[in-house]
Amino acid sequence: MSNTTHVITVDAAGTLIRPWPSVGAVYAKTARGFGLSVKDEEVDERFYEVFGKVQKDRKITSGDEKDFWRQVVLAVFEPHAPKRNLDPLFEELWDLFARGEHWRLADGAKDALGALKDRGYRLAVLSNNDSRLRSVLKDLAIDSLFEKIFISSEMGIEKPEPEIFREVEKSFGEKPSNFLHLGDSHSRDFEGARRAGWNALLFGKPIIEERQITAFAELPELLP
Known about the structure:
The protein is of the alpha/beta class. The chain has two domains: 7-16 and 106-222, HAD superfamily/HAD-like (Rossmann fold, 3-Layer(aba) Sandwich); 21-101, Orthogonal Bundle (DNA polymerase, domain 1). It has helices at residues 23-33, 40-55, 58-61, 65-77, 87-96, 109-118, 132-139, 152-155, 162-172, 186-195, 219-222, and strands at residues 7-10, 17-19, 103-105, 122-127, 148-151, 179-183, 199-203, 212-213. The chain is elongated. The termini are close together. 33% of the residues are buried.
């Protein structure tokens, strides 16, 4: 790992935090409260199918952050409730995922990042997420570790677009080679950061890159 790293940016969902107990579990339980007959596993599978498709639609992703998630929720539950107004269900889900209770920190994340901060590294979150992330990180009592929080919906740019990395560089006043980005998406986080001239580490399993960790406890060991 480069010894010129001054700033470490961390992806949020899938890296620093994960939905708890799962997206499908929260969605399905909430939907059952509205009288829909759905199973956790089916909803979870449907969610990731829909999310993948909607994420590729630039008209939706470049619009309002809440409208993006409304499109996702409506598409997930439409087969189970045709012609029904699902906006109340969406509003409840929107609020639920704005709170820390439905998210969990990655094991060892707080200790590892705290140790790196004590060593003098500057820390930031760099996430393709929406503004609810701020309240989630605050609820999980980890927001104070980060000097800055960069959220794609607020910036109007998403990883892996080079512009989002350039904006982070400007904000910190550092050159590309002084950054290390950690994230679970090979295309958006790992390749996106490398194309921007940053150092990059892939997070999670399976191991597909030489520069990859599967747990936060490994991070301090890689950095001087």
